[in-house]
Design brief:
Structural class: mainly alpha
Largest sheet: 2 strands, antiparallel
CATH architecture: Orthogonal Bundle
Oligomer: single chain
CATH superfamily: Tetracycline Repressor, domain 2
Order of helices and strands: HHHHHEEHHH
Number of strands: 2
Number of helices: 8
Strand content: under 5%
Helix content: 55-70%
GO molecular function: DNA-binding transcription factor activity; transcription cis-regulatory region binding
Organism: Streptomyces lydicamycinicus
Protein name: Putative TetR family transcriptional regulator
Pfam family, one: TetR_N
Radius of gyration: 17 Å
Shape: elongated
InterPro entries: Homeodomain-like_sf, HTH-type_TetR-like_transc_reg, HTH_TetR, Tet_transcr_reg_TetR-rel_C_sf
Strand order of the largest sheet: 1-2
CATH topology: Tetracycline Repressor, domain 2
Number of domains: 1
Distance between the termini: 45 Å
């Protein structure tokens, strides 16, 4: 909800959560506190997905496929984080988000160094593309435009098809 409508009123958020606005305010003093809690939760969930994907094991393409699988359950949270401008405070990126970025960029750099991924696209760009595809996939499933069972294949094939290094010149 917040990813699509960042200015959603607290009473609508409470209704969507199945609680009263008063209950929501008992847990979160205001909108900023709610957003901070969602950021912390989302960063922790995404970090756990990266841990479960074992990014350092096997080849980079296999690790990326595992990450897509592990990220699917937290795709909506990742979409929220990707679009949440409060992760950038005073011109600085949130430390938790920076760690996620670094881990993912390291995976893409490893794939480039091993000759599996294209080197004409930066690891930073590939990281952004990953976040964008996961977030778009979450919303496509939510809106009924993509079947949940097709999400992994759709993301993996589009992303890997675009970043794999071609042996043809």
């Amino acid at each position: 909800m917040l990813t699509r409508r960042a200015a959603t009123p607290m009473d609508e958020i409470a209704r969507a959560a199945g609680i009263s606005r008063a209950t929501l305010h008992r847990h979160f003093a205001g909108r900023d506190a709610l957003i901070r809690a969602l950021e912390d939760y989302g960063i922790a969930q995404c970090g756990q997905a990266m841990d479960a994907a074992r990014l350092d094991e096997g080849d980079a393409a296999g690790a990326l496929r595992r990450l897509i699988t592990e990220a699917e359950p937290v795709a909506a949270v990742l979409a929220f984080l990707f679009t949440e401008n409060q992760l950038f405070e005073d011109g600085e990126i949130n430390a938790g988000w920076a760690e996620l970025d670094a881990r993912l960029a390291a995976l893409f750099r490893r794939g480039q160094e091993e000759g599996d991924f294209r080197i004409d696209l930066s690891a930073a760009w590939l990281t952004e593309a990953f976040y964008g595809l996961i977030g778009a996939g979450a919303w496509a499933v939510h809106e009924g435009r993509v079947a949940r069972n097709d999400l992994h294949h759709s993301i993996a094939e589009l992303l890997l098809g675009g970043i794999r290094r071609s042996m043809e010149k």
